[in-house]
């Protein structure tokens, strides 16, 4: 949670280096704030060294007349004049609070808690200054550097610049490091050193960048004697913070006050301005009732948004006194449309993007190459979802365009093999074979690969044929496969429900191929298709599947056995034959739309090992860039690629967006895969797998059925009387709410779970940044509610969200 | 140009701060290189202060045994121990070279020239160290900071870290500032200070980030006497660079050698690896003959790529001695598919992206808002291409998706107004009215808004009707409008060519509406449409135009009068009526596809003031993000927006990509518009406008016909016997080459201009980074060659490219 209060202005003071005058300028600000009649809180969370100890007393010793309105506090203090991480390690803990070296989490919570305490005092107007230790990147107690460790609190910044030789460089670099973490830098302050005159350079430099720089007279040399030092220092403070309330420090104060009030005004204006200027995707504006329906996202960190809650708050926004932070933590329960992998604003990804943007900007891709794209292509083909079958990577901008590329590839390959058998008109009548409930993206071509439905537009023309698939779900504590009536009819029992006993067995496609159900599926598919081939509208030219889970169609868990048998039938492979990888496609080109399910979303690098068969074409996007920026990749076998080769330019795949394979996204993708692959073999994942009874052997990692969500919770949810089905896989938890109507237009899930959106302060210490109460932002698909984690969501967050879901649904159930 | 030589390894030494031991460690590296038998070049381009003067002699004084193999040089020297920009300003120039304070351009060229001189010495293996002054962001002579001023040379970096208190912070921040400019940081070296032990922290910190850190024993305290200093320092060097050739410095040397050879191996492997793994957009792989057809882009800066030329070079790559840089400058003559606005890798855009990524990452957009998107939406509507008519911004990922959104909007608005008159089947038969030669993007829906052609795929279904438009061109020094025969027939003279006298008159649509040609256009359009309405395949539901220039269709300059009359006819407005802005659409919704032509590509913020009528929907992309990352915006009038409002979710515009309005791109777009709008009112643009006889009055800035290209060149080109037409507008120069066949499959333009691709060292000092010879990368559309600038291309670059084009074509003409 970031902290923003109406009557308490908080600034965090960072230094461009150690010993640049951070404490002196902070003390001056404290004095000036007090002189202007504010209550002032001075917080130095960590202090090291006897010298800084003394500095720390600047405020208290010299605040004189304002002693009653200035409140000073240090949370962790060390005598050793070294970096805090070293001080903590060397001296052992000897601080004010009796805790051992705190983790980043505890540290941020301790600071946030103190700030909230101050905000809850009925003293206003009030100013607070939080002084950091050393430079922006000096390590804190845990070893994390200052700006990363304070980032969860997202306080606006005063950067104290360096006025000495070399100080221009360290000031600018420090500013850039703050920027890379998204910090709001309200002001840069530095001493007016008349010899090096850094401020002369920095004022216009930062003016061009919209940042205010204030130079303040430098302090005198430090005299040897303590008494003399006291006298000289006090005189200096009197000069820069004069009783006239004029001068540079008061100018700085005025500017910081203005920044604070401008920020309050701006954020308060955002809901209405957004209602006036923005057309949201997938939103019926007619149902948006007003400002409180607008989620104003001020920043984000990890799994949490920081949102402006003034319009949501029960207290009127005009209240004279508002002790709660105007910003509230909100768990990003849909992983921002299924994109998040390593949490919002991960510094490693920001740096990766910056590195590639700084080296290349964008460079056009036709017949060109650059390292980020080349490395990504090779990696995806050799060690990623293309492993063992793909030979080429084709980049585009999003899942929808990636699927259009896939369709163009498949149609061409099919048409080429048909040769003269297809005339121009017949080519236009090519269609796809798919499953009911499929969704492949929003562009019209991708939509045409699906049935007509609520999502489709005037031009929609469903090109193909879609089978109704059997689905998997947890229902009343049992794992059940629901067979559509048409399939049930070909089974011996005609039952529409098949109980499989366990998830792990349900997903063991290899074993299940030997069961009678596989034969029933085959029989049903063969019959249905031969009927279609006789009189269907389209010549089927590609099989298009979302493996395991159909996302936008309603989080439908398809029986993987059915998808496998379907592929085998299309390829003319007998049931239970060993899947020989072939470089040629047979029957129809098979496209896997892994945009949602791929790259560990379901706990697995790819869904391919699960089904035990390779596609001819696959599409990945969303997680590919770790949840930061758009990029899609269409992988293909060499046989598909060869269909476009000739000596004629018009035979090429004439598709390409301006920013195809732009370096920033490719570099971010490489970095994301580095991070995720490391996590995937780490202990947190092993533990989660173990809780689902899933082995940690290499093979199980490729095919195991497990989730970050608790197995017992899923079981318990599936038994609730408001719930028809519950399922979990990887990061995904799906709960289907009882509703007569059902479907996309249902509001049942939304209505039942609505209370989750409120920030609740129920836990002792919340899992949200700074330990703040948090609400849950989630999306529903009609009667289906789903919750999605990042690949690195903390156990505390997961347990806490589970608890909220359980209590909300359980209460809803009892009440019903 | 960045510099990379086979037998000369060059490293640039940056400091994390001033006084961190840069000169000492560089000297140690110089000594070690020499000790290992290399010729060594030590270049300190700028030196300030008597102390550094002495430091500078470290190399010479202490290189002893290797005096003949170590070559030391300083280009600019000042006595004043302050930042170079101050030294230069204070002392006046008193340097080694007799030039006044050099511009960044001259400075980079001086350094590059010296490096090239060293590389051309037949001495190998050789090492070179280029030592910078102060910290990474210390200003150079011109005031630009070190890492920005050296960036055009893109040399790999040794960063000397700071071993003192606070040094962890300055080292990390400096590294991040280097990263933001894309620098390759091969190594971080710092002193092993036993008290602060920064290296202990930095080694694992950077290991995690893949950067090598080497700690070296710290030098002794500097003794007072010069003799003693000499003795002590020499002893220190003997210790860290011992005759045994062992120890930390030699380990550093080995690592740098390895980085260099790894880079050579890697870049040399890139062509074949790319041929093996990448499927390029719009490329017929069957025509790619081998490694030399792969453009390996090592980095980019401003208007230039830096490309690997080993496979292109006339000299065999195996030559023992290769004095030329393996990297070559290449002018990006198509502005990387029409995206570039402010040059590649512009630091301001990199920082903007980093700032937003650091604050938000991506946050999902439905019913949410964040500052970068909100500000961009408001700005585009109020002060951008939506000024005066648009009420909403809908974001998507690229021009093609932006156009699909526009089509969905128009189709819905039209269908809604038709109401019961349209049944479900008729809705599918809705079509667009457009112009032959249109192109609206690569997705299938956008393609369906165009005629069938080489770009279309199996599923293509041309939905609509396309008129053949009259076009504008310079031909044999005259401005001519070419009328299609069908239009010529309705004129009095039946001539297919109309000479208009001047470009400015041709584009003065307001005046030309009063001419007979306007009436002829109206008559032709009305007749043709009424005939289509009687028996056409589709119910026309939208008018879709690329205003002024149809890009991918062949850079066709459409007569703007024709587009204006067409809009008036569709809207039922009489010819020459004053265009009353209406908030309601009439006739058909009008879509302007400004993806290519918008946002100053043609010198104008928007094409709308030119035509004098507002669209109902417009799409912008490409330049929107300054050429860095994908983003598109569809702007609409309120009337169109209202067509989607109801209390039913399924009536909403159910379109949205995962990364809709991702903060990094929105922030970059805002920053791009800041930069461009500043340039647009600057003197360079005024000068260019003046050269085309275009007034600088505010109105003329909105509607003036001018180009960055020279008017006389365009005239002269149009008279060449190999050229049929030449045109220029804004950043665009189009040359149509004579060819019997013509069209997209023609290779005439490519064949005639092919020589441009070679790097030529013809000018005294080239306009490319570091003054390097440069080739020109350009793309053709069949018989059409085009060249495109950024909005800030330097006059030197433009003149130089013009000269190359002229000479190539003029020679081709004489020869033919």
Number of helices of chain A: 28
Count of spatially separate domains of chain A? 3
Helix coverage percent of chain A: 25-40%
Largest interface: A-B, 171 and 172 residues
Structural class of chain A: alpha/beta
Oligomer: homodimer
> Unreliable stretches of chain A, pLDDT < 50, 5 or more residues?
93-99, 315-321
Please state the average pLDDT score of chain A: 90
Shape of chain A: elongated
Largest pleated sheet of chain A: 7 strands, parallel
> Distance N terminus to C terminus of chain A?
35 Å
Q: What is the total tally of β strands of chain A?
A: 28
CATH superfamily heading of the largest domain in chain A? Type I PLP-dependent aspartate aminotransferase-like (Major domain)
> Strand fraction band of chain A?
15-25%
How do the strands of the widest beta sheet of chain A line up side by side?
A: 3-2-4-1-5-6-7
CATH architectural group of the largest domain in chain A: 3-Layer(aba) Sandwich
Please give the CATH class of the largest domain in chain A. Alpha Beta
CATH topology of the largest domain in chain A: Aspartate Aminotransferase, domain 2
Query: What's the Cα radius of gyration of chain A?
Result: 31 Å
Topology:
Two copies of one chain form a homodimer.
Chain A: E1 8-15, H1 22-35, E2 39-48, H2 50-62, E3 70-78, H3 84-91, H4 104-119, E4 126-135, H5 146-149, E5 157-160, H6 167-180, E6 185-192, H7 198-207, E7 212-217, H8 226-240, H9 248-277, E8 295-301, E9 304-308, E10 327-332, H10 335-338, H11 347-360, E11 368-369, H12 371-382, E12 392-396, H13 399-418, H14 424-428, E13 430-435, H15 444-447, E14 464-467, E15 471-475, E16 478-482, H16 485-488, E17 497-499, H17 503-506, H18 509-512, H19 516-535, E18 539-545, E19 549-550, E20 556-557, H20 560-571, E21 590-593, H21 608-611, E22 617-620, E23 632-636, H22 638-642, H23 663-680, H24 683-691, H25 698-703, H26 711-719, E24 723-729, E25 732-737, H27 748-753, E26 774-777, E27 779-781, E28 784-788, H28 795-815
């Amino acid at each position: 949670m970031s902290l923003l209060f109406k009557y308490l202005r908080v600034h965090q003071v960072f230094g461009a280096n150690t010993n640049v005058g951070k404490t002196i300028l902070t003390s001056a600000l404290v004095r000036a704030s007090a002189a202007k009649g504010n209550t002032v809180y001075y917080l130095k969370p960590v202090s090291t060294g006897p010298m800084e100890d003394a500095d720390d007393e600047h405020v208290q010793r010299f605040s004189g007349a304002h002693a009653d309105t200035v409140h000073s506090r240090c949370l962790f203090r060390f005598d050793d004049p070294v970096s805090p991480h070293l001080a903590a390690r060397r001296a052992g803990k000897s601080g004010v609070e009796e805790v051992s070296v705190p983790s980043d989490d505890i540290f941020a919570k301790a600071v946030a808690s103190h700030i909230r305490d101050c905000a809850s005092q009925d003293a206003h107007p009030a100013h607070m200054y939080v002084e950091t230790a050393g430079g922006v990147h000096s390590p804190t107690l845990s070893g994390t550097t200052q700006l990363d460790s304070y980032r969860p609190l997202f306080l606006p910044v005063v950067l104290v610049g360096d006025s000495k030789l070399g100080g221009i460089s360290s000031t600018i670099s420090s500013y850039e490091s703050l920027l890379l973490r998204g910090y709001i830098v309200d002001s840069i302050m530095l001493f007016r050193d008349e010899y090096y005159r850094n401020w002369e350079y920095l004022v216009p430099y930062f003016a061009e960048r919209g940042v205010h720089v204030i130079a303040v007279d430098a302090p005198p040399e430090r005299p040897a004697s303590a008494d003399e030092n006291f006298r000289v220092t006090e005189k200096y403070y009197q000069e820069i913070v004069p009783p006239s309330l004029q001068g540079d420090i008061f100018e700085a104060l005025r500017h910081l006050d203005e920044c604070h009030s401008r920020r309050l005004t701006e954020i308060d204006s955002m809901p209405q301005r957004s209602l006036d200027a923005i057309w949201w995707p997938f939103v019926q504006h007619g149902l948006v009732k007003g400002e409180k329906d607008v989620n104003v996202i001020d920043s984000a960190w990890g799994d949490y948004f920081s949102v402006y809650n003034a319009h949501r708050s029960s207290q009127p926004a005009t209240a004279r006194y508002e002790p709660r932070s105007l910003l509230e933590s909100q768990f990003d329960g849909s992983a921002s449309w299924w994109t998040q992998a390593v949490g919002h604003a991960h510094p490693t990804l920001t740096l990766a993007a910056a590195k590639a943007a700084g080296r290349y900007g964008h460079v056009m891709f036709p017949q060109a190459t650059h390292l980020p794209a080349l490395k990504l292509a090779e990696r995806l083909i050799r060690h990623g979802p293309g492993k063992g079958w793909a030979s080429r990577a084709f980049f585009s901008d999003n899942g929808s365009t990636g699927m259009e590329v896939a369709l163009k590839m498949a149609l061409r390959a099919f048409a080429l093999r048909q040769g003269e058998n297809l005339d121009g008109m017949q080519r236009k009548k090519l269609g796809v074979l798919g499953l009911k409930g499929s969704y492949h993206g929003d562009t019209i071509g991708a939509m045409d690969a699906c049935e007509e439905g609520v999502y489709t537009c005037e031009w929609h023309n469903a090109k193909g044929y879609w089978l109704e698939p059997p689905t998997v779900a947890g229902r009343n504590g049992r794992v059940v496969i629901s067979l559509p009536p048409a399939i049930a009819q070909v089974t011996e029992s005609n039952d529409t429900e098949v109980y499989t006993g366990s998830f792990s067995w349900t997903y063991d496609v290899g074993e299940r191929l030997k069961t009678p159900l596989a034969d029933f599926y085959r029989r049903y598919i063969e019959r249905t298709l031969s009927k279609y081939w006789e009189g269907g509208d389209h010549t089927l030219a590609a099989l298009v599947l979302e493996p395991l889970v159909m996302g936008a169609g309603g989080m439908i868990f398809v029986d993987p056995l059915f998808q496998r048998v379907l592929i085998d039938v299309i390829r003319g492979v007998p049931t239970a034959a060993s899947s020989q990888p072939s470089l040629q496609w047979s029957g129809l080109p098979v496209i896997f739309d892994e945009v949602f399910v791929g790259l560990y979303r379901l706990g697995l690098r790819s869904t391919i090992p699960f089904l035990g068969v390779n596609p001819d074409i696959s599409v990945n996007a969303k997680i590919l860039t770790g949840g930061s920026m758009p990029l899609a990749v269409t992988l293909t076998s060499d046989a598909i690629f060869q269909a476009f080769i000739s000596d004629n330019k018009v035979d090429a795949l004439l598709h390409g967006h301006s920013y195809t394979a732009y370096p920033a996204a490719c570099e971010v993708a490489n970095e994301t895969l580095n991070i995720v692959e490391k996590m995937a073999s780490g202990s947190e994942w092993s533990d989660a797998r173990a809780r689902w009874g899933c082995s940690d052997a290499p093979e199980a990692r490729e095919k195991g059925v497990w989730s970050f969500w608790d197995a017992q919770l899923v079981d318990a949810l599936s038994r609730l009387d408001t719930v028809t089905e519950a399922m979990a896989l990887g990061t995904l938890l799906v709960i289907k709410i009882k509703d007569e109507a059902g479907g996309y237009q249902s509001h049942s899930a939304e209505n039942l779970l609505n209370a989750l959106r409120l920030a609740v302060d129920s836990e002792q210490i919340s899992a949200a940044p700074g330990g703040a109460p948090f609400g849950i932002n989630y999306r529903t698909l009609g009667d289906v509610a789903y919750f999605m984690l990042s690949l690195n969501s903390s156990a505390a967050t997961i347990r806490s969200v589970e608890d909220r879901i359980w209590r909300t649904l359980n209460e809803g159930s009892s009440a019903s």
